[in-house]
Design goal:
Layout (H helix, E strand, L loop, with lengths): L11 H10 L6 H11 L4 E4 L6 H13 L9 E4 L3 H14 L7 E4 L6 H8 L4 E4 L1 H9 L10 E4 L2 H6 L3 H10 L5 E6 L4 H10 L4 E4 L10 E7 L5 H11 L5 E4 L3 H12 L5 E4 L5 H13 L4 E4 L14 E4 L6 H8 L9 E7 L4 H11 L38
Parallel strand pairs: 1-6, 1-7, 2-4, 2-5, 3-4, 5-6, 8-13, 9-11, 9-12, 10-11, 12-13
Bound molecules: adenosine monophosphate.
């Protein structure tokens, strides 16, 4: 039975903003989390991007803060990457359009001026990555003693990135008397260990839907010898009718090379990886979102958390080394029930990676051959690499 946003106890200004966004009804995680958060409960949300988790925590938080207060920030959202920080801030601004609250964004790799300016004018909500937040805290530019709602987003990712100490320090800088909301795509022991000391009687909400590769995404594997991958990539780009396509590579070098190749075709292309300056990264992403670039070539930093509307296709130039990354990558398309397609170019040397993905999904991924493409060798079509039958899925990052 579906319910409406107003059934969840959200107020007029938020409902108006949701109307502007065109959201008709809450997603499952929103339906479950919003009433609990409005009641002041702590929660652990097992959810990845694409489920509507940002609104699930942003809407009730905005409502709880109610009116602007210039003293000190009262809500803090901690996220692993700059890209996610930008996205979460954009969401808070959209949902808080009629709420008159100040949202301030803090992340590293850029100057301090604008961020200090934002803080001086009184932030109600701070959205931050751990390093820059601690940096500004040490310089006494930000005071966390009045935080009422602490949101830890993509905690699994923060742990993967080695931020555990920073995150723990930040939690300890917030008052003990607070509401804490923890979101993570996986809820394993390390996450529960944090929850044990940082949350109070949390309610666990599981919004992962089975094998998470969104049902709306049709995904296929294209077997090909590695030296023909480039030709196959261009042939696929030529063949498909895409509006915007995200190409993932394993290495920064590959990302740069592929960008050059695609540039030589008629497509407009940008690159996103860690060796690019923050300005270049922001420009690439903004250009991709606005439609200036039809193709974005990215390493894994772009794989998680990015929310770009209307991505019609994702192409994995390499089979992702970590099975969970596959799910995150193909999750970039087909967001919030839009149709999407994902293709993975698979060469025989990547068999182990593909097997791991199929084990995680609990099924094999359909093999496809591109009609009209001159394969040098007959691609390995039939092989079911896994023997994977549906069964318990063990999610493990082996880093
Ligand atoms: P998230 O999981 O927070 O990254 O959200 C994924 C996408 O779903 C974003 O583009 C949101 O704008 C969109 N979205 C979130 N909630 C809803 C909703 N209730 N109805 C339609 N779209 C939504």
């Amino acid at each position: 039975m579906s319910c409406s946003f107003s059934d969840l106890g959200l107020n007029e200004s938020i409902l108006r903003a949701l109307e502007t966004c065109g959201y008709k009804e809450p997603t499952p995680i929103q339906e479950q989390a919003i009433p609990l958060i409005l009641q002041g409960r702590d929660i652990i949300g097992a959810a990845q991007t694409g489920t509507g988790k940002t609104a699930a925590f942003a809407l009730p938080t905005l409502q709880r803060l109610a009116a602007h207060n210039p003293d000190h920030p009262r809500a803090l959202v901690l996220v692993p990457t700059r890209e996610l920080a930008i996205q979460v801030e954009e969401n808070f601004k959209r949902y808080g359009e009629f709420a008159a609250l100040n949202i301030v964004l803090l992340y590293g790799g850029v100057g301090y001026h604008q961020q200090l300016h934002g803080l001086k004018h009184g932030a109600d909500v701070v959205v931050a990555t751990p390093g820059r937040l601690l940096d500004l805290h040490e310089r006494r530019h930000v005071n966390l003693s009045q935080i009422e709602v602490l949101i830890l987003d993509e905690v699994d990712r923060m742990l993967d990135m080695g931020f555990i100490e920073d995150v723990s320090r930040i939690i300890n800088l917030c008052p003990k008397e607070r509401q804490t909301l923890l979101f993570s795509a996986t809820v394993e022991k390390s996450i529960l260990n944090i929850a044990k000391w940082a949350l109070r009687e949390p309610q666990i909400i599981d919004a992962r839907s089975g094998a998470t590769a969104a049902e709306t995404v049709a995904h296929y594997v294209y077997p090909v010898e590695s030296y023909q991958k480039y030709d196959l990539l261009l042939a696929i780009l030529n063949k498909i009718n895409f509006k915007s396509v995200l190409v993932f590579t394993r290495t920064k070098r590959d990302a740069d090379r592929i960008t050059e190749w695609v540039e030589s075709t008629k497509n407009s292309v940008a690159t996103l990886h860690a060796d690019r300056s923050q300005n270049e990264r922001a420009e690439a992403l903004a250009g991709f979102k606005s439609g200036k670039y039809q193709v974005l070539v990215a390493t894994d930093i772009a794989a998680r958390g990015l929310d770009v509307r209307g991505i019609t296709h994702v192409i994995n130039y390499n089979v992702p080394e970590h099975a969970e990354d596959y799910v995150h990558r193909i999750g970039r398309t087909g967001r919030a029930s839009e149709e999407g397609e994902a293709f993975t170019l698979f060469s025989p040397d990547e068999l182990l990676y593909l097997q791991a993905i199929e084990r995680l999904l609990g099924k094999s991924i359909e093999r496809r051959k591109l009609e009209g493409f001159k394969y040098r060798f007959e691609p390995m079509m039939g092989a079911n690499t896994t023997g994977a039958s549906a069964g318990p899925v063990i999610r493990r990052r082996n880093r």
